[in-house]
């Protein structure tokens, strides 16, 4: 971004916001997967080996 004109600033902000949106959606998906794993773990009966 050599010169700070309106077009360059808009292009930069669009890229920045797109990247931030991707990061936010990835974080939400990761949290949802973790919640699903925890639910599945808590629902399954615990098995232990007894000798």
Descriptive notes:
The chain has one helix and no strands. It is mostly helical and 51 residues long. The chain has one domain. The protein is rod-shaped. The mean pLDDT is 87.
Quick recap:
With 51 residues, the protein is mainly alpha-helical.
Mean pLDDT: 87
Shape by Cα distribution: rod-shaped
Radius of gyration: 22 Å
Strand proportion, as a percent range, falls in under 5%
- Residue share in helices? over 70%
Order of helices and strands: H
> Biggest sheet, open or closed, and with what strands and sense?
none
- Extract low-pLDDT stretches: none
Distance between the termini: 69 Å
The total of helices stands at: 1
What is the subunit organization of this protein?
single chain
How many strand segments?
0
Class inferred from helices and paired strands: mainly alpha
Tally of structural domains:
1
Identify the notable features of this structure and list them briefly.
51 residues, mainly alpha, 1 helix, 75% helix, rod-shaped
């Amino acid at each position: 971004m050599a010169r700070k004109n309106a077009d360059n600033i808009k292009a930069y902000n669009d890229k920045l916001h797109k990247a931030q949106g991707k990061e936010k959606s990835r974080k939400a998906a990761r949290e949802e997967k973790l919640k699903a794993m925890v639910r599945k773990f808590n629902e399954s009966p615990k098995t232990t080996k007894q000798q």
